[in-house]
TrEMBL record:
Keyword presence, Signal: yes
Protein's organism: Shewanella surugensis
Keyword Signal part of the UniProt annotation: yes
Listed PROSITE patterns: PROKAR_LIPOPROTEIN
The entry's keywords: Signal
Signal peptide (from-to): 1-24
Protein name (record): DUF3997 domain-containing protein
Taxonomy, superkingdom: Bacteria
Length: 146
């Protein structure tokens, strides 16, 4: 191989590798999923507890700082309303998929469906929702940059 071809190949490999490398500022980008705010019960919104994140059990906490991407949250509702007449066995967890975007905060809630009287084992009385979304500067803590 001629020197010119070797140089050209080396240059192309260098360009390709640098394009694939992650920049440090991109490693710290994140969004936040939160469950600490008390939603408006007058709007039939109630708090939830996160039980699983992407199928893995978690200890519920107020905020989840996450790299941008798709996540699945498993939630348990905390509906405290005298109109709730379902059996305890109907109070099951539900899943909510969220596409986390950099510098966005998503507030979780349980939407209590009051369109009709839910009784017995009918789990259709609630749905997990994002009740509030706002811009929030987020930088992933170094300890979470895996």
């Amino acid at each position: 191989m001629t020197m010119r071809i070797k140089f050209t190949l080396l240059f192309l490999v260098t360009v390709l590798l640098s394009a694939c490398s992650s920049h440090p500022e991109n490693l710290r980008q994140c969004g936040t999923v939160s469950g600490y705010l008390e939603p408006d019960s007058h709007a039939n919104l109630y708090r939830v507890v996160v039980t699983h994140l992407n199928g893995k059990p978690v200890i519920s906490k107020p905020n989840y700082w996450l790299k941008p991407g798709h996540y699945q949250f498993t939630l348990a509702e905390l509906i405290d309303n005298p109109r709730l007449k379902v059996a305890l066995s109907a109070r099951k967890t539900k899943k909510l998929d969220i596409d986390v975007v950099t510098n966005e905060q998503y507030h979780l809630a349980a939407q209590f469906n009051i369109d009709r009287q839910y009784t017995g084992n009918n789990s259709g009385y609630w749905e997990p929702v994002i009740w509030k979304k706002e811009t929030l500067a987020c930088e992933l803590p170094v300890s979470l940059q895996e």
